[in-house]
Amino acid sequence: MPEHDRAATPGDGLVARPRQGLTPPPRVRLSVAEYRAELLALVEPDHRSERVALDEAQGRVLAEDVLAATANPAFDNSAMDGYAVRYADVSELPARLQVVGELPAGSSWDPDLGPGECVLIMTAAPLPTRADTVGPLEDTDGGRDWVEVAATPGALGAHVRRSGEDYPAGAVVAVAGTRLAPGSLGAVATAGATAVAARPRPVVAVCATGDELVDDGAELGRGRLHESNSHALAAALRRDGAEVVRGAPLPDDAAALARWLDASAPGADLVLLTGGASVGAHDVVRDLLTARAGGVFRHVMVQPGKPQGWARWAGTPVVALPGNPLSATLCYEVFVRPLLARRLGCPPPASLVAVAASGWSCPPGRAQVVPVVLASAEDGRLLARPAHPRGSASHLASSLASADAIALVGEQVEQVAAGDLLEVQVLA
Amino acid sequence: MPEHDRAATPGDGLVARPRQGLTPPPRVRLSVAEYRAELLALVEPDHRSERVALDEAQGRVLAEDVLAATANPAFDNSAMDGYAVRYADVSELPARLQVVGELPAGSSWDPDLGPGECVLIMTAAPLPTRADTVGPLEDTDGGRDWVEVAATPGALGAHVRRSGEDYPAGAVVAVAGTRLAPGSLGAVATAGATAVAARPRPVVAVCATGDELVDDGAELGRGRLHESNSHALAAALRRDGAEVVRGAPLPDDAAALARWLDASAPGADLVLLTGGASVGAHDVVRDLLTARAGGVFRHVMVQPGKPQGWARWAGTPVVALPGNPLSATLCYEVFVRPLLARRLGCPPPASLVAVAASGWSCPPGRAQVVPVVLASAEDGRLLARPAHPRGSASHLASSLASADAIALVGEQVEQVAAGDLLEVQVLA
Questions:
Q1: How many CB atoms lie within 10 A of CB A339?
Q2: Strand partners, B368
Q3: Which residues of chain B does A219 touch, with a Cβ-Cβ cutoff of 8 Å?
Q4: What does the buried/exposed string (b/e) look like for B198-227 if buried means 16 or more CB atoms within 10 Å of the residue's CB?
Q5: Are B336 and B321 in contact (CB under 8 A)?
Q6: Which of B306, B304, B314, B228 shows the shortest CA–CA distance to B271?
Q7: How big, in percent rounded to 5, are the helix, strand and coil portions of chain B?
């Protein structure tokens, strides 16, 4: 083959390199489940734990169950503004009681009620030991020294929140593996915690490779692409609890890639690369990792993302994702997100069942991952429609701007029809 | 009323204060929609914009539409590894073509193909101007100088990704108001952006009030509660795009509250307080804001969270949420989250339709907000079950640890039955 293709491409970032064969080493074909299992085996759960103050704990994953220091409520208290009474004193009307005190929320006072006596009590204030029922303010004349009770409370113990009604002391209020969100953070604080035992954030180094990549927003020359994978993956990694080291894109040059790996892998729990994983003549990631890092590359029977692989560099797991932006992002969600969940000890990404709002065709013999937008039908069914009007082709990267989930279509499915049931994984 | 309730409560944090009447100023009853509208009027959309690099843009809200600098794909390119050919040369078999060059992804070379010539081309490499079709590698003998084409490509233009098939130059790839997530960040980068115009983060000062609050994890004395509202609300505010200034809890003391407001309100876009908003005799937030900040307090016909209000302190909107942890968090989701969305110019929280997995009773004449856990039925319906086995009572704060959505039940509903349709708002 003539070499003028090189000479004729000044400044296109390509350097002449030894011609390589087109026939790749024979590669095993794996299903999505098989390849996911292979990647999961790359990492072990992290058993380390670090103490994190609540102010820093949002998004962190609990390393241990959080136990309640005290029951909630910690004491019997009033569910209403009203009067703490002895039920026997108000079971027959008319009833007129002496008001011997006032109990605001937060008071530690435990008035010694005698027969015919009551205490004005505010919502959440502790019920006096010698009272047993609360009479709502609106069922009385609101008197302050003496009160007329106009209606007997529904039952002995009415309007009283019992200690432990939410949970007893020692109860688990959040389980190990919980990713702390506003609600769980509030529950943990309510239980008396001021800090939590959290898993360290996995450190992930991510970098895109390819001579075609432009990362400074410059106008694109023929054959060039704006680099987006490192940004999309860095954001997904942070969402999933990782600390990210994002590298500038690398050319298709084995030495440059090796230098970056030498610098990045030792300090990382995981390395993500995109591009160069295919069977072409310039797939440097595949070539370098296969030659120097025990790289294993697969035909995964999925669209998009068929060719990809993994290796270990300086002992650190390296996952080589496809270079196409849509393929890289979708393969992250399907293959890498579960790997981070395993490392952190949290549940794998949840999936839901949705109904296809429209149909599309699927590649024979391959599973398919399709960005979808979710909505509700009037009858409560969850509807999923492809996020891109032109479907799922791997160059339709804009579909990710609007997708809020991905549909996972089995490899035996050749056609999705409107109304079919789909497994969807939410991207949040 | 005797004063010994004060004398008898040394060290409980209460100070004697003038007796106050129990009858609050008459308060207007508002529906959820009416009160939400009243709060929304407190803030104006922020029209300022700041330039944010992509590395810092996750979770930020776009101030402007992002337009594509170039079409995507920017050029016709190959969808396969194979040979770029002129269809006429392979429309009749056998076909044997001379390979005049090799086009890796990223090459800017545009070989001048003559009749009977072809170019070895890699996936995503630019299609030569004088080629019109790609023949997949597997349909050939993979020759490097001469190639035998064993099967005619399906049609003229087969396996070619056309320029602009995803979107044309100038297309909107992400609309103003988008909160940047991994997918939209990737789409924005793919379109050539290296930074975005984002809304400034609203600064929100948040503080819980109440003599009963303990914030150091100390063992609870009678009547005391661990402070959790400021942590739960700070996390929700960050989730919703705010920059949070979290204050330590304040006692039921008007002077202390006024000092904190003087220090916090001027630098904030919004102030959130919890507690002291009810009709009790010690509701300092209500009393101070009403007396000094034009405070407006309402009976909102919702459970939980009936008594709450708003004001302006030094011109800054102040929202006074109920003190009960579950009430505070749920009222944040229903009333405050939409207010932040309005400020940032993003859509209000999305709601879905779900089916009640079990029934529960509702308070007559009041809307109800119930923490729920979502799951899928086999037929694709979204199921919602209450997150707490004991229901929706406002002291069951632990329900927030597991809830992934809230169900919004209308005020006319007196009983939810299994199978009923519910409006749910996802908490993510």
A1: 24
A2: B303, B409
A3: 69-70
A4: bbbbbbbbbbbbbbbbbbebeebbbbbbbb
A5: yes
A6: B314
A7: 20, 30, 50
Q: Which of B299, B302, B308 is nearest to B411 (CA)?
A: B302
Region label for A422, one of left (φ > 0), alpha (ψ between -120 and 50) or beta (otherwise): beta
Cis peptide before B73 (omega within 30 of 0): yes
Q: Into which CATH architecture does domain A50-72+166-198 fall? A: Alpha-Beta Complex (3.90)
Contact A246, B55 (CB under 8 A): yes
Residues of B in contact with A220 (CB under 8 A): 69-70, 74, 192
A133 beta partners: A85
**How far is CA B24 from its chain centroid?**
37
A366: its two tokens: 């391959």
Please report the number of interchain residue pairs, chain A to chain B, with beta-carbon separation below 8 angstroms. 428
Is-cis flag, bond preceding B94, omega within 30?
yes
- Contact of A330 with A388, CB cutoff 8 Å: no
Q: Quote the minimal CA–CA distance from B194 to chain A in Å.
A: 6
Spans of chain A below 50 pLDDT: 1-26
pLDDT tens-place string over residues B234-280: 999 999 999 999 999 999 999 999 999 999 999 999 999 999 877 66
What CATH architecture does domain B28-46+201-344 belong to?
A: 3-Layer(aba) Sandwich (3.40)
Do B28-46+201-344 and B77-161 fold alike per CATH?
A: no
What CATH homologous superfamily does B351-426 map to? MoeA, C-terminal, domain IV (2.40.340.10)
**Tell me, what's the pLDDT at B2?**
36
Nearest Cα to B165, choosing from A185, A9, A398? A398
Q: Minimal CA–CA distance to B322: which of B397, B402, B398? A: B397
What percentage of chain B exceeds 70 in pLDDT? 92
Digit-coded pLDDT (tens) for A29-59: 999 999 999 999 999 999 999 999 999 999 9
CATH of region B77-161: 2.170.190.11
Output the six-digit token pair for B305.
Answer: 């969270």
What mean pLDDT comes out for the span B194-216?
A: 96
For helices A284-292 and A254-264, the axis angle rounded to 10 degrees is 60
**Domain limits, chain B:** 28-46+201-344, 50-72+166-198, 77-161, 351-426
**Chosen from A163, A173, A206, A228 to mutate, greatest number of chain B CBs within 10 A:** A228
Find chain B residues with C-beta within 8 A of A234's C-beta.
55
B interface test, pick of A190, A303, A374 with most B CB neighbours within 10 Å: A190
Instruction: Return the DSSP state at A220.
Output: P
How large is the C-alpha radius of gyration of chain B? 31
Contacts of A377 in chain B (CB under 8 A): 353
Residue that is written with structure tokens 């136990």 in the block: A67
The Cα A70–Cα A74 span in angstroms is 6
Of the partner residues A1, A73, A185, the one whose CB lies closest to the CB of residue B395: A73
* Tokens read off for B388: 């707490």
What lies within 8 Å, CB to CB, of A207 at 6+ separation is: A230, A246, A247, A248, A249, A250, A260, A264, A271, A272, A273, A274
Residues of A in contact with B396 (CB under 8 A): 165-166
Alpha helices in A240-376 (DSSP H): 254-264, 284-292, 325-331, 337-344
* C-alpha A330: how far from chain center: 15
